[in-house]
Automatic annotation (TrEMBL):
Compartments, record wording: Mitochondrion membrane
Alphabetized GO MF terms: proton transmembrane transporter activity
Family: Belongs to the ATPase protein 8 family.
Transmembrane segments: 6-24
UniProt protein name: ATP synthase complex subunit 8
Keywords, alphabetical: ATP synthesis, CF(0), Hydrogen ion transport, Ion transport, Membrane, Mitochondrion, Transmembrane, Transmembrane helix, Transport
Organism: Chauna torquata
A biological process from GO: proton motive force-driven ATP synthesis
Gene this chain is encoded by: ATP8
Domain of life: Eukaryota
GO cellular component: mitochondrial membrane; proton-transporting ATP synthase complex
Pfam families: ATP-synt_8
Taxonomic placement: Eukaryota, Metazoa, Chordata, Craniata, Vertebrata
Amino acid sequence: MPQLNPHPWFPIMIMTWLTLSLLIQPKLLSFTTTNSPLNKTMATKTSPWTWPWT
């Protein structure tokens, strides 16, 4: 059965993985995000939920 022969598919998989990780990923990571995360401290006090059946 040709599906069990890894010879033609394993090099294709490795080359695809290397292409994605070495060429495309740095280009995607170089984009700046539109909303940069801010260093905010969460100071909101939360109260526990009161269930009506307890």
